[in-house]
Fold:
Amino acid sequence: MPIAERDAHKLAEEIRKIARSAASEMDLQIKVEKLLDPYIPKIPGIELSRYGQAATKYRGIKDAFHGDLVIEYERPGKLSTDRGLAECKEQLTRYLTQEARKHGALTAC
Structure:
């Protein structure tokens, strides 16, 4: 059963609260993953959750995998700077490119 829009807004607000009070990236990840626990099994296609999955072709570690859902956590405050936001966008581009290639949606670039 899909998450109701009202529940999605409530969940997003709870994640924002956690993000504002998190002391570190790991603190953020642990608290958000605990919050997501009841929702993850309801997402179609998720059979396995993995954490700390190393990126094979690109540097970095993907923080949380739930099936095809990838969650990348960042240290508190990183997204509030232009440099931090640019780094996150580049990291996201690398991860999405890798996943697209893995699933055959993207050939050589």
Remarks:
- The chain has one domain: 5-102.
- Helices lie at 5-21, 25-36, 82-102.
- The first helix runs from residue 5 to 21.
